[in-house]
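Cont'd.
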Amino acid sequence: MIPAWLVTVPTTALLFLFYVTFYHDMEFAMWMYRPDIVDANGRVRDLQELGRHFRDGYDFIVVGAGTAGCVVANRLSEVKGWKVLLLEAGRDETVVGEVPAMMTTYQTTTTDWMYKTEPDPGYCRGIDDGRCIWRSGKVLGGTSTMSAMVYTRGNKRDYDKWKCMGNDGWSYKDVLPYFKKSEDMRIDGLRDSPYHGIGGYVTLEEYRYYSPLIKYLFKGIEELGYTLRDINGESQNGFMHSYGTLRNGFRCSTAKAFLRPVRDRPNLDVSLESHVESVIIDPLSKTAGEVVFVKRGYRYHVSVHKEVIISAGVINSPQILMLSGVGPAKHLKELGIYPVISDLKVGDNLQDNICASGIVYTVDAPVGTTLLNFLSFSGLSDMLFNSNGTLMGIPAAHGVGFQSSSIADSPDYPDIKHYLAPMAENTEGGVIFKYMNRFTDSFYNKVYKPIAFKDSFMTWSCLMRPKSRGYLRLRSRNSTLHPMIYPKYMTHPDDVKVLVEAARFSGKLSKTFALRKIGAKLNPNKFLGCEHLEMMSDEYLECSLRTYLMSLWQFAGTCKMGPATDPDAVVDPRLRVYGVRGLRVADASIMPNIITGGTYAPCIMIGEKVSDMIKDDWHQHFYNQSFSG
Ligand SMILES: Cc1cc2nc3c(=O)[nH]c(=O)nc-3n(C[C@H](O)[C@H](O)[C@H](O)COP(=O)(O)OP(=O)(O)OC[C@H]3O[C@@H](n4cnc5c(N)ncnc54)[C@H](O)[C@@H]3O)c2cc1C
Ligand SMILES: *[C@@H]1O[C@H](CO)[C@@H](O)[C@H](O)[C@H]1NC(C)=O
Ligand SMILES: *[C@@H]1O[C@H](CO)[C@@H](O)[C@H](O)[C@H]1NC(C)=O
Ligand SMILES: *[C@@H]1O[C@H](CO)[C@@H](O)[C@H](O)[C@H]1NC(C)=O
């Protein structure tokens, strides 16, 4: 007789097992055949593993070896006389994570901070506990190591607006040189563009795999009247094949780009698994003096002579500030954090680019978007031996482009971003996506299970300039507990309006000749809780958004940059924390307004720019020459 478990173990569990096995096979094969990607001797090493000790003090301590932090550590240690310590809570990047399609392996594991928002009936109703999942990298390179790597800088006007708010030095004209400084554009046709740089640390390439379906999607895009162009160039109005921070087709995090080449600098120490608790600020002189962190069970106090730069990301930078006595005085007192060094609106102004997603169109053509196309041994051998094939692409974002809603500020300032995705929540049958994004069973089973494994496409159609503002607060004085996150999505009616318009885009695309030809059909299963509403009506779309929206995890704004006259500002336009000496913040949290694009490229720019400001302030520009090698 056939044992009962054989019948009841669902396909998804077997596939999941296969996925895990595949991971280990891949890791093993990469060590065998791709020592260039494993790069065992070129990686960044922890100072204690190198047999060294913390020094008596450092000129600069950078907290967080993330997207911006790696840039800052590199640029500051260019000055030979400066001793720099870089502290990172996570460990080194994984080998498998260098393969673009394996990006999800960084999620929901030890390399992910795994934040969840506080429950709110206004959103994430279809997610377990009603809490949205927020991802952020806890690994060398930070979120640049787990991201989809799509390089989008934002609109010129985003930066001009920052300048208009009183942030001198942050207009588009001012920041463009910093985008170009770190860039090594490797795509033919863009190398000569006045908007791109060559020879910098970060290599930009096209992904080496785009699903065959993308051709149809781009034909549809052209039918709708959009131009194909470099959306990081003269104008944002149009679409392009995504390009990203890739090197020879593999991931190029900021750790790979900025730290590995300078790992032997004698004045740069990197300490991994070092969870920073707080910065000790002298209450009389209000000067940052020591950084306190816990590493492998031991607590360290390391002193700093010049400055601490906090680059711990949009959630953790405000957390560290608050634990150091910098934040809303009332809140800090309630938690017993004394003394309050500087009463500032740390944790406010939280913004996120949320997307209408999960509106799925099935197609009749076999277009290589399902799980088994990715987890195939032919894909593995293509990757290993030719650096090509299905594993070298990120199907969630094969194409990217912009659209203006009916309430956009001006025609050259679009407020919706679309990712074109030849895959969807159903295409891998609930093996990865459902589990990662914690869909409730009832939601998944109702909406996606009936079309599981079918070839499909969707767009992630995202609100670029939200008017709603969220905030975060400490849960406790215990630095290992995550802050409480209140995104307050869609509390402004304009956000709902733009998102509903955005959500209609994939429907328009599905009706183009190019997509009708391959039988594009809307998933007929209505969203859970929205069955009573007319399919695709405004009310239905709003309801579907409140059941399930996708964050691109490009949040920003919690340590707002602004002039001294701005009561909400936490840092000044040179990113110095108000009311404290020797303390700056440099990461996505300083953005006064989130930008019309992705946050990754701007974080590199912010790292470059703050480094130059620091060098200026300490009159060290003279010494800016790099070490060789
Ligand atoms: C899955 C995913 C995909 C994404 N894809 C894209 C994309 O394709 N394009 C795009 O533009 N944007 C993308 N983003 C967003 C973008 O990558 C991030 O906004 C950006 O990288 C944030 O950079 P950061 O410097 O602010 O922080 P991070 O890069 O997150 O760096 C913070 C660092 O500080 C460390 N740290 C935090 N707290 C402490 C502590 N207490 N002690 C010590 N160290 C600490 C963290 O471990 C981390 O290394 C994506 C985000 C995610 C999660
Ligand atoms: C990968 O590259 C090899 C060798 O250059 C080529 O023969 C093969 O067709 C390529 N495969 C794909 C899927 O592009
Ligand atoms: C902080 O929280 C962690 C996780 O809950 C716990 O293990 C630890 O004991 C707490 N520390 C203190 C000082 O309470
Ligand atoms: C760095 O120094 C060189 C001269 O060595 C100078 O030309 C360059 O402008 C400096 N860079 C910056 C960003 O100031």
